[in-house]
Amino acid sequence: MKPVTPVLSNGSGWERTSVPHRRRVVMAHGGGGQLTAELIEGIIRPRLSNPLLDTLDDAAVFDVPAGRMAFTTDSYVVQPLFFPGGDIGRLAVCGTVNDLAVCGATPRYLSVGLILEEGLELDVLRRVVDSMAEAAAEAGVRIVTGDTKVVARGQADRLYVQSSGVGILRPDADLGVHRIVPGDRVLVSGTVADHGLAVMLQRENAFGMESGLRSDVAPLAGLVSELLDACANDVVFLRDATRGGLAGVLADLADITGYRLTIDETCIPIRPGTAYAAEMLGLDPLDVANEGKFVAVVRAGAADAALRALRSHPLGSLASEIGSVGGTRDGMCEMVTVVGGRRVIQKPYGEELPRIC
Amino acid sequence: MKPVTPVLSNGSGWERTSVPHRRRVVMAHGGGGQLTAELIEGIIRPRLSNPLLDTLDDAAVFDVPAGRMAFTTDSYVVQPLFFPGGDIGRLAVCGTVNDLAVCGATPRYLSVGLILEEGLELDVLRRVVDSMAEAAAEAGVRIVTGDTKVVARGQADRLYVQSSGVGILRPDADLGVHRIVPGDRVLVSGTVADHGLAVMLQRENAFGMESGLRSDVAPLAGLVSELLDACANDVVFLRDATRGGLAGVLADLADITGYRLTIDETCIPIRPGTAYAAEMLGLDPLDVANEGKFVAVVRAGAADAALRALRSHPLGSLASEIGSVGGTRDGMCEMVTVVGGRRVIQKPYGEELPRIC
Fold this sequence. Notes:
- The structure is a homodimer.
- By secondary structure, chain A is an alpha+beta fold.
- Chain A has 2 domains: 27-169, CATH 3.30.1330.10; 177-344, Phosphoribosyl-aminoimidazole Synthetase, Chain A, domain 2, CATH 3.90.650.10.
- In chain A, 29% of the residues lie in helices and 24% in strands.
- In chain A, the strands form 3 sheets. A 7-stranded mixed beta sheet of chain A has the order 9-11-8-12-10-13-14. A 4-stranded mixed beta sheet of chain A has the order 2-7-5-6. In chain A, strands 3-4 form a two-stranded antiparallel sheet.
- The radius of gyration of chain A is 22 Å and the shape is globular.
- The interface between A and B is large, with 84 and 84 residues.
- Strand 1 (60-64) of chain A pairs antiparallel with strand 2 (67-76) of chain B.
């Protein structure tokens, strides 16, 4: 559609006037009328502009090659909206990109749905959309379609984002838990628990806590590409360790494959500040969400090549082999602790950290 | 992933217990842990089950033919969640299906993101997911991937749904405002304003109002197929008339093409009960949202064939030719009223009806 240009009154005939200096979202921004158009044309489209989005049709249309496609969706309700290392906009783009990447897909096109609470500062929306645009450029994807809704005060917490994405599967990637066999090695692409703890500490700032922690939120498509370029056929499983943390992924893997996983705690990369913050808050860092880390299961013979590939990329410089898949068929994930004890890693029960993503 | 089966205590060893008789959503349902798995395995997957969804991977993977693909997203915040003729689940599926259909695409795969307010009755969630499943079956699409988040009381209004979808473009369809030329005819696929007014009257029920109005929410892919099968090359533009109503679509069309549209009010189908309700509420029915109606622009010579095709389908039995595109280049949409007057149809300014979809 054509831009809705506010026309200054010339004292005669037809004119479209915009309310000057509007600073906050009002219910009418969600009505599908002129104010919705102003929101889209004034704030969203200029920041995300690309030929597919610019049509502003109800759907984006693009060419696809014959092959396999991945399709994913996630909702984002993180609180606060801005935190060290990122914000809800970056999170929404990266989370969706990462879900596609760990399927072995090259992420291509994203959609974004916004639920805005009446009264939200338009400057906040501008910052979030700017951040989406930056993250999309970083990830090499385009945001091609979207939607906005407005709800009354007290019916949302400022701003929720939902993003979906599609990507084209690499023909050389063959990923799935069914390919995991005893002897395979378990890698993690870097330090754990940074996202969840950075967000938690940001919340606690109200109480005067300070830290240098930053969320690890980042688009992992490039890092996954490095890994698959190096040893595609020997990479058998990838999963980003978001809600539920590293523990969630490892416990799931053991449960689904039925094999015992053995993990060496001393090999799990964790920043000292993150470990300290987790201890202070009484959290197990393995349960805490990451937004820029994945678990890879690779054939034993390819583990070194896989690690080299990961470490050659800035987002994988601290990648580490943390354990292996064993032949025992009890579906448990056991961790050898730093002091030499053993404990079972379980899927976290419920909500360690509400609204972390 | 494998189902998480609650295991009854046998007084020894490992066991997974579920909290019996849980009736409402708690924050921990959103944590990505065992309770999230119970929500998904206990309520969502059984209702939407299909081979792609059942993998419960972070993304669904499927084959696509080479060609053009459409991709769309929408958020749904309708209030109340249930209304005569539908509910938020049916709305989310149909809305996304319809956005794809009016692009000339055959809808294929949908995603669903749920934002749940703490305290939501699980029975409500069951009903909504049941309704999604029914609508998806009716539309011939599969819900293949999804996400759930939980926010605290007072941070949502019970339940919001975001759905995205992908579809494959019909090679014979060539739709777009750029194809519209003077002489083209404007059709509407049936009665207008039923959805918005049915929802509004449902809200007003608290005040003792009653009506027989029902939302028109329905998946339009089949009806669009009938039309395109009959005269694909002569159909130049389709748009579903949702937020902003018929007026929004017509004003946009005039504005974007730059041509004058002339509409005959006597030809616009509207149910008497709907017209009465609109008058009572002081609303222009042309501004009111529909969820099962589209506007079609067709070549003049194909108008009769197009109408026959539409009327041969149950969802298009009241389709009508309502006007035409003229040669005057003023970008206005003019309506000849029932009493023979003339008025300009404008895009509604803002929120006539908040949270209608």
